[in-house]
Amino acid sequence: DDEVLAGLAGSDASAHADFNRSSEHARAIASLEVVLRERSATMVAAGTPFPVDELTAAFGLGPFVRDTLILALAPELDAAMPRLLAYAQDDASARHATPALATGLFGLDAGGRAEDTFGPNGPLERLALVRRTDGLTAATRPLRLEPRVAWYLRGVDDPTGSAGIGLRRLEPAPVPAELSTAAESVATAIA
Asked: Which of 139, 165, 180, 187 has its CA 20 to 30 A from that of 30?
């Protein structure tokens, strides 16, 4: 407990990050992350990737956004999670993940800014992965997944959209031969 309190006491972000990396808990988490990456690679090789891996690949999302999506899904999978999230945030009303919690737990991707992930032009809102909650500060607003995204991450997909889920990867449309040179020029210009 003393080690944890000492690590949390300072407001120095780099000291806090050093503490997190050096703690026994961080090493245990890093070990689990290795196992999860290995299982994920195995699933991809078998042609049946985890839904979260499909989603992050399809939208080109980074590890921080991937972890944030899983954190936002947690209260929907386990009834004890809302209480744990509230405890972790020292706020009994904070029963869902928040941008502040996700940033504190995972740190941002290299060179990232919280606004780039959680702002209106960030991938979570731009891609309609989370529901927008107004009236709260940007750091403390709940991260609640859109229902279709939550179901998809659970492995339930409805490509027809009849259940309101309808997430699926679309194959690129064929480009007519007479337009292929122009399409290549545009693709090169924007790359």
From this structure: 139
Residue 12 has pLDDT above 60, yes or no: no
Sorted by sequence, the CB contacts under 8 Å of residue 146 that are 6+ apart come out as: 128, 129, 130, 131
Question: If residue 131 lies in a helix (H) or strand (E), which one and from where to where?
Answer: strand 130-131
> In sequence order, which ranges of 46-110 are alpha helices (DSSP H)?
51-59, 63-77, 81-88, 99-106
Give bridge partners of residue 131 from the DSSP assignment. Answer: 144
Q: Is there a contact between 165 and 156 (Cβ–Cβ < 8 Å)?
A: yes
| 85 to 101, 124, 127, 142: CA distances (angstroms) | 9, 20, 25, 11
pLDDT at 1: 41
Cα 67 versus chain centre, distance: 4
Can you give the pLDDT at residue 84?
92
Instruction: Say what the pTM is.
Output: 0.70
Q: At what angle do helices 51-59 and 63-77 cross, to 10 degrees?
A: 140
